[in-house]
From TrEMBL:
Its main location: membrane. Pfam families: MFS_1. It is found in: Cell membrane. GO terms for cellular component: plasma membrane. This is Putative sulfoacetate transporter SauU. It comes from mine drainage metagenome. Keywords: Cell membrane, Membrane, Transmembrane, Transmembrane helix.
Length: 463
């Protein structure tokens, strides 16, 4: 948890000497905050996001001890992993509303504290039911992190660097997922998986305490000039009307489905089912499989930044998304149709598939540009929910498929699934990605410009 440690040290310094960031020049409402102060706010929020991302992917690395200790089959393990996504997805739209009303600080403190409690509960869970509850708490707690982190970046940094800070924020999350691969596997073997996760829970508690002490919603709270004007929070009625109205534009539904396949399949593979496949049918050791998954996570992060920049420069949304989605489809087609492909080919295609899945970030801008400006925030929340829908359905669905095709073989109390079972399971993902790609092709191109036509989809005609 390198970023967490670094940000914790920086925040502790701020706590010990609260005025340190302002010593070079006194607070002045005519000036924006110094970079060091802005970075301290962002670093703590990014550390909380990193910790939650770490916990998101732990079931894949710990699949064998979890199946053994809780006596799970594949469907139950998939459900355990997906409980995180159930609560994460449910929190997205309320988080946007809460950020407008209360600001990001309270959400980061609450979310990180809830994540810590869920992690500690999971580490001590005596039964499968308690473990499910704990995963739900982690998902709900981390569900507020991304939107709140972007809100911190928007409020504490100049608009011209918001894209850069968004990329760095995504990179922080990816680092958390990478640390949850081989490093977590090594920790679990040295100290045990329960003890390792308990340590992560304590780190989250420290982060929540530091966030409460250090983070401020806006620069003006410390006497500096804000980058953003004050916003009037939306009423509950306005939010509900926005949720109803946003579905009147065709792209909303199409771009809701698209990431559920293109990103959802990637999340399902890297969160849970990729590791056992690589170990059982590609002859990889646990650390080797973990590093392969880590490489895919890095490729996804790099792809997100590259596709986003390419889309902006090209002034096109559809083309980058289609190309990236096609790369992802090729990866899952190979897993389903030729799982014993030569190692260099398979692993190269998997990395390319992960790189292509990063094109899903284009969908956030595309969704906002597909509706009138007053619905842009709602469209973003709906789109982010679609990102998670795929994983929360696919994780247990693939487990059910694997159990249905299980031949009865087990090793050390852990079920072993033959190659055919994995082929069928990955075939489900292949079909889902293909449907998602068709939705991208059917969506209206916005040419990277806000949507000016206010006529809903039912009367706008085919495009």
């Amino acid at each position: 948890m390198g970023v967490a440690i670094c940000s914790a040290g920086l925040a502790l310094l701020e706590w010990t000497v609260p005025s340190l960031s302002c010593m070079s020049s006194p607070p002045n409402t005519a000036s924006h905050p110094p970079l060091r102060l802005s970075l301290s706010m962002w670093a703590l929020a990014a550390a909380a996001y990193l910790a939650g991302f770490f916990l998101r992917v732990t079931p894949g690395v710990l699949n064998a001890p979890l199946m053994r200790d809780f006596h799970l089959n594949a469907a139950q393990l998939g459900n355990l992993a997906s409980f995180y996504f159930y609560f994460y997805a449910a929190s997205q739209i309320p988080t946007g509303v809460a950020n407008d009303r209360w600001g990001p600080k309270k959400l980061i403190v609450f979310g990180t504290f809830l994540t810590a409690m869920g992690t500690l509960l999971f580490a001590m869970a005596p039964t499968y039911a308690v473990a499910l509850l704990a995963r739900g708490m982690i998902g709900l707690g981390h569900g507020v992190a991304w939107v709140s982190l972007l809100e911190i970046a928007a409020r504490w940094f100049a608009p011209r660097v918001f894209g850069t800070m968004s990329g760095l924020s995504l990179g922080a999350g990816t680092l958390g997922a990478v640390l949850a691969q081989a490093p977590l596997l090594a920790m679990s073997r040295w100290w045990g998986w329960r003890e390792s996760l308990a340590g992560v829970g304590l780190v989250c508690l420290l982060l929540a305490l530091l966030a409460w002490r250090v983070i401020r919603n806006s620069p003006h709270e410390l006497g500096f000039r804000d980058y953003l004007p004050e916003r009037v929070p939306s009423s509950l009625g306005q939010v509900l009307r926005g949720l109803r109205d946003v579905w009147g534009w065709r792209n909303t539904a199409l771009l809701f489905v698209a990431p559920s396949g293109i990103c959802g399949a990637f999340l399902t593979f890297t969160t849970l089912w990729g590791t056992p496949f690589l170990e059982q049918h590609r002859g990889m050791s646990g650390p080797q499989a973990s590093w392969m998954i880590a490489a895919m996570l890095v490729a996804f992060s790099v792809g997100g930044m590259a596709w986003g920049r390419f889309s902006d420069r090209l002034h096109r949304r559809k083309l980058p998304y289609v190309v990236g989605g096609g790369m992802t489809l090729a990866g899952f087609a190979l897993l389903s149709l030729w799982p014993q492909a030569p190692g260099v080919l398979l692993f190269g295609v998997l990395l390319a598939s992960a790189l292509g899945a990063g094109a899903m970030v284009v969908g956030f801008a595309w969704a906002k540009e597909s509706v009138p400006q007053h619905l842009a925030g709602t469209a973003t929340g709906v789109h982010n929910t679609g990102v998670m829908i795929g994983a929360l359905v696919q994780l247990p669905l693939l487990g059910w498929v694997l159990d249905a095709l299980w031949t009865g073989r087990a090793l050390g109390g852990v079920r072993q699934y033959d190659e055919h079972a994995f082929q069928v399971a990955f075939g489900v993902l292949m079909v889902w990605v293909a449907v998602a790609l068709a939705c991208v092709l059917a969506a209206r191109e916005t040419h990277a410009r806000p949507y000016a036509n206010l006529v809903p989809a039912r009367t706008e005609g085919a495009v």
